[in-house]
Amino acid sequence: MVAKRIAVVILVLFVLAGCSTVSVRDHLVNQERALYRRFPCKVEGEYRIIELFYATNRKAEKESGELYFTSQISNGLTKGILEAKINPNIRISRMVPKQVRRRGDIGVRKVEEYGNKEFIVKLTEAVRNSPGQSLLVLVFGYKDDFELTATKAAYFAYLLDANTPVLFFDWPGDQLGLLRGYKEAHQFATDSGPFLGQLLADIIVKVKPDKLWLGSSSLGCQVVCSAFEEMYKRPEFADNEAEISHVIMAAPDVSKDEFDREFKDEICALSDRFTAYVSSKDRALFMARIIDWEKKLGLQQVKLEKEDQFEEAKDLLYIKSLAPDKIALIDVTPINKAGGGHTYYIESPEFYDDFYMRLFEGFEGKNRRLYLVHEKEGIDYWIMRGGE
Questions:
Q1: Which of 4, 166, 172, 238 is close enough to 157 for a disulfide, judged by CB 3.0 to 4.6 Å?
Q2: What domains sit in the chain, N to C, each tagged with a CATH number?
Q3: Of the candidates 317, 158, 152, 183, which has an alpha carbon nearest to the alpha carbon of residue 253?
Q4: CA nearest neighbour of 105 among 43, 41, 46, 42
Q5: Each residue of 148-192: pLDDT tens digit?
Q6: How many CB atoms neighbour CB 60 within 10 A?
């Protein structure tokens, strides 16, 4: 009996000694990860009801008492909260919006508009009630009307599955036609930047989230560039203190020269970290490159398996070298199975995994879906691989 008691005491002391070697930092990281495990949503049978904050610079009109948004730009922002209904069994890549809306499978079912003061109050309350007092802002791209943008944002929030409030910024990117429509949308993206810039400034100054993340994709990245250009003109945002935790761009339809010439300074001043996902088989960006004769940041191949790939890759590595501690460039070509090679940012599980880890891990080394390739001049870049 005495021997058993001695053994138990020794075992307890051993366990306690082991606990004393556990890093407090690791414990806090694990605790934070657990807090962000689930995005809150309502369940109605096979459907999910996602609540989102929205802000749009589209012209707003009312018909039969219901608010709807046109494809024209407004002089101000309309803000509020909406509910979007999604069906996880319907893959967004195969979604035909008009058909599924008619059947009632997905779509926006309630849109509430708030004045600026009330909107800030409700957004602040949501941020303060979130586990990390955080906010994720999303900006999508070309051809999406308000309802499709809201639906994409709902799917994104659900699939990312991080317990944080989500606000999507909607701009009039749904212009008709390929050549003329794209050019008009590109101009609207540039013109919409100041609206997003003012929204972000209000969030930083009035809402004051502990963590502010900004995710954008496709031509929505041009909106972000234009927004940062406006914010950078203000002394309080042009200093060395970063106001945004992480800026993430996927398939960025942004001029690589513009990024090098202007955006890099704005990113370094406004954000702690910047990540761009690029691909060599993005046909949408290939078409955009032909239309406006500009090399696109999101259309790259950085693997140096052949000597003739070095010239194309070194431009991208140069961008990385501008701020190696802040800028990360990730080649998603191996996992890019999206239609047209463009919408991997809404379709690929591997992308969501990496996006999530960018928000909560802080550095690339912990993500086993990435493998590191060292360029001979010492600049690192990462290539994403699938789970198989």
A1: 166
A2: 50-57+77-101+112-384 (3.40.50.1820)
A3: 183
A4: 46
A5: 899 999 999 998 989 999 999 999 988 777 668 778 888 999 999
A6: 17
